[in-house]
Write a structure and sequence with these properties.
75% helix, elongated, mainly alpha
């Protein structure tokens, strides 16, 4: 019985795609953590609206980390799973005690856009490797993050 992975994607491409997905995983988890913190700490006249919106967003992000990590594993690599590993590769800025609701919205918008760009940057490699499953995952992630970014941007509009 062979444990070799023979899914039509060569090992070098699988490793490179998995590395890219691990970066996406780190960003997604980091944004999850930040969004959850903002959910707990938001104050002001928009409290109820933002508290509920942030809950919806962090719940979706929590589900996404599992999907991304499982794709990394399906490609035969180890999914990152520690704060220190995520901190080394994430493009998401940590929550540094933000208390202003508009600043929270702006930082979450920026985080959504980091993830969109990270996911989009993986397409050339994924397409070259004929990795349709990862392409589908990326398409779904981009679509969701673009919608969330639009909603956050709309809340910031004056």
């Amino acid at each position: 019985m062979s444990t070799e992975i023979n899914i039509g994607i060569n090992q070098a491409d699988r490793v490179e795609i998995a590395n890219g997905l691990n970066n996406l995983l780190a960003d997604t988890y980091s944004l999850y953590l930040k969004t959850h913190s903002f959910h707990w700490n938001v104050t002001g006249p928009m409290f109820n609206t933002l508290h509920l919106m942030f809950e919806t967003q962090y719940t979706e992000l929590a589900l996404a980390v599992d999907i991304i990590a499982e794709r990394v594993r399906a490609l035969g690599e180890r999914a990152l799973g520690s704060y220190s590993a995520y901190a080394k590769v994430t493009g998401i800025k940590e929550d540094n005690g933000v208390t202003d609701a508009n600043q929270m919205l702006q930082e979450l918008l920026e985080g959504q856009e980091v993830i969109i760009r990270r996911a989009r940057a993986l397409y050339p490699l994924v397409n070259q490797a004929d990795d349709e499953a990862t392409a589908d995952l990326l398409t779904q992630r981009i679509q969701l993050h673009e919608k969330t970014a639009w909603m956050l941007r709309s809340m910031l509009a004056k």
